[in-house]
Amino acid sequence: MSKMDDLRAMREARYAQAQKRAGAKPAGERRVRTAPERAAPREAAPETSDGAPEVALCGHRNMSGRTCTREQGHAAKSHRYS
Question: Which pLDDT tens digit goes with each residue over 52-65?
């Protein structure tokens, strides 16, 4: 075995151990979800005390920790951070 083969074997063994510790299935054994399982049901926005629905924010965080101020599930490709 060459040095590269040894390194590859060690890397794969380490990956398998990490997957075992995390309780996840190895990459080849992952279950494929069906369409109804993928689609999460949307909840109605909670109402404020004056009766107007409260808009839920996207909440996506960028690397510096700022959060997106667009509505949740926005169609825009970019986020607005503040």
Answer: 667 788 888 888 88
Q: Return the amino acid letter for 16.
A: A
Contact 46, 53 (CB under 8 A): yes
CA angle 53, 55, 56 (to 5 degrees): 130
Q: What is the pLDDT of residues 7-22, one digit of tens each?
A: 999 999 999 998 888 8
Predicted TM-score (pTM) of this structure: 0.34
DSSP codes of every residue in 13-74: HHHHHHHHHHTPPPGGGPPPPPHHHHSPPPPPPPB-TTSPBPPPB---B-TTS-BB-SBTT-
The answer for 12, left when phi > 0, alpha when psi is -120 to 50, beta otherwise, is alpha
Please give the Cα distance from 28 to 75 (Å, whole number).
33
